[in-house]
Design brief:
There is one protein chain. With 116 residues, the protein is of the alpha+beta class. It has a single domain, classed as SH3 type barrels (Roll), CATH 2.30.30.
């Protein structure tokens, strides 16, 4: 079984809530190594070609990736979910720019921080 790491962009079969069909789409693994080593689940955020440009979205510049995505895309940092390792179809690439990965994780954190 393959091990994935934080910042890997993987392809999954994403099933929309309330629908029976699924769609192959890219997602980014946001969980760290310690979390990933606990069990066979990863924390991930979906990647979409619909650019929303909001505080919880991170626009992907392909220069930050080891391999380009097929279309202009953004990470939905407030749509976190878990996904089983054995259900991941394949790895597409990885984030090679640490500052961009830190920006993504900061946006994830801003989506779950306690309200004042």
């Amino acid at each position: 079984m393959k091990n994935y790491k934080q910042g890997d962009i993987v392809w999954i079969d994403y099933q929309y809530i309330g629908e029976l069909s699924s769609k192959k789409r890219p997602c980014i693994i946001i969980s760290n190594l310690e979390s990933n080593n606990l069990d066979n689940d990863y924390l991930i955020c979906p990647i979409t070609t619909t650019n929303r440009i909001n505080p919880f979205s991170a626009l992907i510049d392909n220069k930050y990736l080891s391999r380009s995505l097929p279309q202009s895309s953004e990470i939905r940092c407030n749509k976190i979910f878990t996904y089983r390792q054995d259900k991941i179809a394949e790895k597409h690439c990885e984030v090679i720019n640490k500052e961009f990965l830190e920006e993504v994780l900061a946006k994830v954190y801003s989506a779950i921080v306690v309200d004042e």
